[in-house]
Amino acid sequence: MGDMTANFSFGEFACKGETCCGHSSPISRRLVRALELLRLEVGSVPLTITSGYRCNVHNKAVGGLPRSKHREGIAADVLTPPHITSKEFAELAGRVGLFYKGGIGIYDGFIHVDIRTDSRARWDSRT
Hints:
The chain is of the alpha+beta class. Helix content is 28%, strand content 17%. The protein has helices at residues 10-13, 29-41, 56-61, 86-93, 97-101, and strands at 49-51, 75-79, 103-107, 110-114, 121-124. A hairpin with a 2-residue loop joins strand 3 and strand 4. The radius of gyration is 14 Å and the shape is globular.
């Protein structure tokens, strides 16, 4: 049970830096609600968030882009469930309105999703 939504908690989205912001988690509730919809798209299996909010210090430490949507609390990296591929997972994410209009990136073993509003973005780091 989550403390943000039925299946997600603030702690899952907290900055993972060890010596920066004290694991703050100013994450968008709209993002988390969109992740609940993505969870339904994949058959209601649990989703594992590997990166949510990143403060400036942690974002730089992990090689994140200076304008990373993680810094705004509107992005998440999510492990690909074992029964599908990352490409299939990204396609399912595209069925969720906020992700369809936002950003979806494909990586080995996970996808990035965000709810940016300035421009739709798609990328595949595997190519």
